[in-house]
Amino acid sequence: MEKENQVTDYRYRLRFEKTGTFAYVSHLDLVRTFTRLFMRAELPLYFSEGFNPHPKMVFSAPLPLGTESKTELLDFRTVAELDPAGTLSRLREVSPIGLEIRELYPAEGKLSEIAFAAYALTFFSPLDEKQAAAVSDFFSQPSIPAEKKGKDGVKTVDIRPMIASWELVSDREIRALLSVSSERFLNPDLFSSKLRSFLCERCGAAPSARMLRSAFYRADGVSLFR
Amino acid sequence: MELSELFPLVQKPGRYTGGEYNICIKDKSAVNLRFAFCFPDSYEIGMSNLGLQVLYHALNLAPDVWCERVFAPWPDMEGLMRENGVPLFAWESRDPIRAFDIVAFTLQYELCYSNVLNMMELAGIPLLASERGEEDPIILGGGPCAYNPEPLADFFDLFSIGEGEEALPELADLLKRMKREGRYTRAAFLREAAKLEGFYVPSLYRVSYREDGTLASFSPLFDDVPATVKKRVISDFNDPKYIPIKPFMPFIDTVQDRITVELSRGCIRGCRFCQAGHVTRPLRERTPDVVDAAARETYRKTGYEEVSLCCLSVSDYSGIDELTDRLLSWTGERKVNLSLPSMRADSFTKELMDRTSAVRSSGLTFAPEAGTQRLRDAINKRLTEEDLFHAVDLAFDYGKTSVKLYFMNGLPTETDDDVLGIAELGKKVIDRFYQNPNRNRKKPPSVTVSVACFVPKPFTPFQWEGQNSREELSRKQRLLGESITSRKIRYHYHSADVSYLEAVFARGNRTIGRALLRARQKGLRFDAWDEYFRFDDWMACFAEEGIDPDFFASREMGEDELLPWDFIDCGVTKAHLLRERRRAYEGLPTRNCKEGCSGCGADRFGECLWKKKTR
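ok -> structure tokens follow
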């Protein structure tokens, strides 16, 4: 709780899932979707001062269009204390399909403390032995140069240091912890396309796959951020 | 291939995913009639259309009717659908619309006709009504362009003329009843539908032509089919039942994405080029009570940050003060903006500006339509220079620096002096800025002069007028461009080619259908989008069919000529339109309905507001 502009300011955090076609709602559109959802639920939102008042919201690292997630976090501010359970059920009643709000609780710490996100890469058909071995080789590379499109054109970055850990949990699924801090952000699409093209090179083919974000971690890579 | 597999491959998957908040999902097993409401343009344009919201709402009121949305897939998606054999689907269920009972197209502007045919082809529905079989859906058309449905007569089974809130559910009921009683065949259904008020079944009318190409006769094939099709007007415009208080909300950015409530239908002004102002008469207003309650309820269901009031001329709405008071009593604290589009400069007041977010936007827009008082009188746009100056002074007082002015080139009786008057007016508005002691001193003024080309439209006093040739329009556009010397005036004009094609369709007859079919074969579509408009191909379509497009666009039609749309009774009579045409040539404006009745004839469709007030 803190004071700002003489308005008592409460900070809350939502954990939500983004699944199905809702995964195609872009980050920018998500901001609009939540603003309206909050207004439908009649939340006493804190609005910014000024010419064009708008509610203050902070989201965890953006997802590429089409990628699903079991854990997305949103911090928002209100001018009155909320009853978390009642508010959660009100929000759930007015949410669009594919946007599942799972938890609401007072926000502790800042979302910028998030350093890593856990992803599951699921293949639509099982990897054979050769492909499984190639997965291992992929991660064993000392560096993995990838082309990243930015504001100033395409540049090559080494994504290997942004992969904190990985595990082949079955012949269909790889789990990986990727860096999502603002200084070092590894786009999960870039990661999966790099991995798949490596498999293609080595084994002639790679099954299609989809990425799912499942959790956020702090800088130590062990403690969960919630 | 599944539709969802195409999503990652297109530019904007959000156009096709569906799942928007407030859409209507029904249990297919409990539904007796599937209705596809097609908007023949992009998702972003279609989702911004209030008519779609209104009719979607009206049709879905019936528990056993499921109305779903369909939009024109953007060319990237269209290519993938064709490549992968994915037929055109409905946005809610993703079911192919070919299996629906009724597939309806809303006809908002002429340049979407090629999209209509393209969508039918993508759906796998035979384009020609005569080639469709019992298993094919009934193809229905409606919307503003249905006031001259003839260019599309070959492709549609029937048209709904006028307001659809009551007409479409009636049509759905008829179809359900006939299917239930086992007496449904296409022919039997269409014959029955033709007897419902406000429906036109082109195949039940015979058209013959004179040697000069004009119509010789237009008559029903059977005695029980009406010779004149009367447009529909809903029985009670104040009935809240028909207000879509649960509008579907797009996730992606669209053109209009806010609460929109209609204030009125009809217009008291009667500008002589304006089709909407004539065909929507008689004037009816919703009470401030009904509008406010609808806006509140819609807010509860949407959480939108803006309320927009919609009608042909907002400032003519008689309850505007009461309504804005009521709205402001709850919008302010919720940080909801109030916006009033389509304001007339002659009724633009400080009070209105104070109340609306017109203040917030960077600029204001007014439509003098013509550059001189003489021409404004001739077209019955009675806005004076003083009215406009008063309005821009107010805007400049508020610190506004930019003003947009809309005009038209090629209006009947227009001379080069009128064209040059547009530049003159723009310059005077700049001068007003510098004469204003309260002006914004940090920013230089900017006046945008936007000039459209006049297109003669059915059911207007100018319906007989020939459009200026494309060469003449281009000459006027150049003349105007050369006479604008100030760098503070920005000048835009519409393509004369596009406006020409619009005129051909607007006043076309059934023969135009052959060119439309050719256009489909040549792959023409999205004509309203510069990047896809291919004028030379269109001209080739007409030439190959031996159709002279000038006959429809540039020819002055005879006052005693049988016009392709004469069989429709839109309320305003031909006699009134003719009177108004004469007055235009005499340079006489006509009083508006508030000042007195000019006998337009629309009160046959219900007492108009101003007659009611003076009774």
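The mean pLDDT of chain B is 95.
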